[in-house]
Amino acid sequence: MSGVPQPAADQARYARLLSIGTGAGLAMLVVLFGVYMVGAVDPHVPHERLPEIWHLPSTQFLELVRLEAGWGWTARLQHADILTLLGIVTLSICSVPCLLAIMPVYWKAGQRLLFAICGLEVAVIVLAASGYLAGGH
Amino acid sequence: MRRLALLAATGAALALAPEAWAAAAQAPAPSAMPWWGWPLALFVVCFFLGIVAVPAGVGGGVLFVPIVGGFFPFHLDFVRGAGLLVALASALSAGPALLQSGLASLRLALPLALVASASSILGAMIGFALPTNAVQVALGATILAIVVLMAVAKRSEFPEVAKPDAISAALGMNGVLVDPATGRQVSWQVHRTPAGLVIFFGIGILAGMFGLGAGWANLPALNLLMGAPLKVSAGTSSFILSLVDSSAAWVYLNQGAVLPMIAVPSVIGMMLGAKIGAKLLKVLPAATVRKLVLGLLAFAGLRALLKGLGIWT
Fold this sequence. Notes:
The complex is a heterodimer of chains A (137) and B (313). Chain A is an all-alpha fold.
């Protein structure tokens, strides 16, 4: 064995995309939260009302502020607090393109098990994101 | 005009639920702190938690949930949601460098992450289905168990793995570790993958249920049970969290349990603190900091337990 081993193609590709996704998500989070905090765009729930209701369970909170569970928030993106969720969504989904990008690497290498595992992991995250899985106190 | 219309719309939307607002008024006594004081306080607390987490070898999420849940006025749903995001953001940020350096192994991580991702969704759903007090009691008991685990668990730099099991061999769960400190190259492989998959199923449930992150459990499972070298275990553990917490975070998002006012200052504070903590690694007495952090964690765990039991509300 000579020299320092380079990261395998799957790791290198995943790392490159993850770096882009995470950077974008964090940048969005900081910028949109800044917009929210300075009041440049009106929030759905006024800043000063939050301390009155953030002791409530999330289901009651949603009911109180007239927000639907699941993807209902996307209808209210004109509000700064809701808009900030876009940064959080980006962080929560940015692993999916990375997984999709390494699947061809495993397929070409004949590593069908790893290919299937990546596909299943994507399916799990998409299922979680779908909003079909819900509960409540 | 547009601004006025938006204000009116917001006011109307909130006015639609007057009974609920009246119920909210029965809340604990209102604090004198202005609204902006809370995100500022969260940022400061998380900044210091981030600083001590690195030398203590503890994940930010595991510190965040019991401490913020115990001493801030937010409902546990929002604290768990924010805790997951703290752990997720930290894991995602560390991921690319860990993968590039070989300190995280994709092939080792993927099968374990798949099982833990699926179970973290289950854990999150259980957490939302149970009464808050029950979750609080379980959280306290889990935190106290984590303190014991972290205090007594041993670590092995290069565990002996005579022969890989059939699953790890089929999936190529092996690699070459280049120690950045010494430049030494060590080939590694793992065993006991079926047992590892079972353990990671349980880890996923706890991570999803409490929003804790799960490095405290991933590391011993990878290192002591499966026989991965310590540095590969630490890097891969962090990478696994990036997938597990992604799944669970979606359940919290869909439940409305992610409040930007709580989550974002926590994430930013913890990440900035961790950067400072990494720089202070050589200066701070790591063993002493670790003992202090474990003591703090034990106190927060006890607080969560007693709060859930209604003894210390």
